TrEMBL record:
It comes from Paramormyrops kingsleyae. This is C-1-tetrahydrofolate synthase, cytoplasmic. Pathway: One-carbon metabolism; tetrahydrofolate interconversion. The lineage of its organism: Eukaryota, Metazoa, Chordata, Craniata, Vertebrata. Residues 59-146 form the Tetrahydrofolate dehydrogenase/cyclohydrolase catalytic domain. GO terms for molecular function: methenyltetrahydrofolate cyclohydrolase activity; methylenetetrahydrofolate dehydrogenase (NADP+) activity.
Length: 326
């Protein structure tokens, strides 16, 4: 097992997060979030303190990684470029690793009062079989900032949006839709892909925000795509959605991260054929530089919210203990 720590140094700006009518939008979609997070990180009360100090210097976002693949490593390391001052620890469990060892590590993090967020980086790769569901659900739901435990996922599916952690990529997609000024209510929305970390929770978010939502596997896509006012693609297959299928004036959120060999080395492609889609869509997120930066911003927002909740609970419990001692 190896431990590596880093400090976040900036929330990435997503001035290129949305391409509008074939042009790069000049709207810095993440800047308002960055200002909010920076303010939050410098004004919230310290644990056990009433003055305006930052509790985040004493707070940790823990990541558990088992033999990373390149695509997941790319997305996980992006928090290094965030500007909110929090500590992010990487616990790398190198293969071969057994399930009991992973569960013991998660249990230790659950008990650590200075850790306010825990991420299990998927997919879990190991020479030994590892039950991913057991690993995910070993995380304390109150520290599950990825929103993947059964408790948080169940609350989201029932529409209890204010009482659960929501996966950061779908949450970031909703923020991008909001920034584009596209109302969700009454729109036809199509989600391509049904992964537990993007597709399924994205469907739930759109549904509970009053869109007519369909979740669709990457088969016979063209007719469904052409009717979608809001199209979210998270299929994990490069350029599976062709631009000529996209509804004219529609909004396209491309969540794909596909590493494709090229003449100058590997390059990133999304799940949508961007050049042709740009000719029809009103808004489209580029790859890279679209969904990714917003996902990181949402992760930091969720983590800082978790810190605030935990420190408030700590201060409340400490107050009652002190009153009870008199």
């Amino acid at each position: 097992m190896s431990m590596r720590c880093c400090r976040c140094v900036s929330i990435p700006t997503a001035s290129r997060a949305l391409r509008n009518s074939g042009r790069i939008s000049s709207t810095p979609e993440v800047w308002p979030l960055r200002r909010f997070l920076t303010t939050s990180a410098t004004s919230a009360p310290e644990i056990g303190e009433s003055t305006h100090k930052s509790p985040y210097s004493a707070s940790t976002l823990e990541g558990v990684l088992v033999e990373l693949r390149r695509s997941s490593k790319y997305s996980f390391y992006r928090p290094k470029t965030s500007r909110v001052e929090v500590s992010i620890s990487f616990t790398s469990l190198l293969t071969p690793f057994l399930l009991p060892q992973v569960l013991r590590g998660i249990s230790a993090v659950n008990r650590n009062p200075l850790v306010h967020g825990l991420i299990v980086q998927l997919p879990l790769d190991s020479m030994n079989p590892i039950d991913t569901e057991k690993v995910i659900n070993a995380v304390n739901p109150e520290k599950d900032v990825d929103g993947l435990t059964h408790i948080n996922a169940g609350k989201l599916s029932r529409g209890d949006l204010r009482s659960c952690f929501i996966p950061c990529t779908p949450s970031g997609c909703m923020e991008l839709i909001r920034q584009a000024g596209v109302p969700v209510v009454g729109k036809n929305a199509l989600v391509v892909g049904r992964s537990k970390i993007v597709g399924a929770p994205m469907h739930d978010l759109l549904l509970w925000n009053h869109a007519t939502t369909i979740i669709y596997l990457p088969l016979f896509l063209s007719s469904q795509v052409s009717r979608a006012d809001i199209l979210v693609v998270a299929a994990g297959k490069p350029e599976i959605v062709k631009g000529e299928w996209v509804k004219v004036g529609g909004l396209v959120i491309d969540c794909g991260i596909n590493h494709i060999p090229g003449a100058k080395g590997k390059r990133l492609l999304g799940d949508v054929h961007q050049p042709s889609a740009l000719q029809r869509a009103a808004f489209i997120t580029p790859v890279p530089g679209g969904v990714g930066p917003m996902t990181v911003a949402m992760l930091m927002e969720v983590f800082l919210h978790s810190v605030t909740v935990h420190t408030s609970t700590y201060n409340s419990d400490r107050l009652w203990r002190s009153l009870g001692s008199h």
